[in-house]
Amino acid sequence: MSAHTGFAVWITGIPASGKSTIARSLVEKLESRGMRAVVLESDELRKILTPSPTYSPEERSHFYRMMVLIGDLIVRSGVNVIFDATANKRSFRDHARSLIMKFMEVYIRCPLDVCIKRDPKGIYSQAASGKATTVPGVQTPYEPPINPDVTLDGQATPESAADIILEKLEYLRYV
Residue 38, SS3? Predict the structure, then answer.
C-alpha cells in the first residue's frame, strides 16, 4: 500500500436526509486544510454507469460494486473520497469497508417526515404518485448501519455535521 493512500467517508441515510449538503461542507473544510477530496455522488454516477436505471436489486448491487471499485482506485491514488450515496443495504457499505483501509461510515439519522418535507429532487412525491416504486425507506427497505463511526442528526447544520466528521477523522488519524 502506498504511503499516500487517501481515506474514504461514506455518508449514508435515507433520501433527503442531508447527505449531499454535508458532503459539500466537508469538502470545503478539507480543502481549507489543503486536502483534496472527491465526492462520488450516486445520482451523478448513475448517469454514466446506469443511464436508464431500473433500481432493481440486481442493478443496485452491480452499481454499488462499481461505485466502491471507483472509490477504492481513487483512494489508492492518494485522493480522499466522500461517498454521497444512500446505499440502502449494509452489504454495499460493508464491501467498501472491506476494500478501503482508511474507511469511515457516517450515518445521518433524519425522520422520514422531515425528509419528505425537504424532498429537493421530488423523490417522495414521485413515490406517492406511483411514478417511483423503489424509494429506500418507503417502498424499499433501508438498512441503517449497525455500528457507524459517526451518527449525525439530519436536522443539524451542515457545518456542524462536517465538524463532527472532521473530529472523527482526526481521532482516527486520517487527517
Answer: strand
> Would you state the pLDDT for residue 1?
41
Low-confidence ranges of the chain (pLDDT < 70): 1-4
The Cα–Cα gap between 36 and 33 comes to 9
H helix or E strand, kind and range, residue 9: strand 8-12
β-sheet bridge partners, residue 10: 83, 105
Give yes or no for a contact between 6 and 109, defined as CB atoms under 8 angstroms apart. Answer: no
* Rounded distance between C-alpha atoms, residue 147 and residue 143, angstroms: 12
The closest of 132, 94, 100, 71 to 12, measured between CA atoms, is 94
CATH numbers and ranges of domains, the chain: 8-167 (3.40.50.300)
Burial of 5 (0-12, 13-18, 19+ CB in 10 A): middle
Residues forming beta bridges with residue 84, ordered by sequence position: 11, 41
- What is the length of the chain? 175
Q: How is residue 75 written as a grid cell?
A: 483512494
pTM, two decimal places: 0.93
Model confidence over 130-155: pLDDT tens digits? 999 999 999 999 999 999 999 999 99
State the pairing for strand pair 37-41/150-153. Answer: unpaired
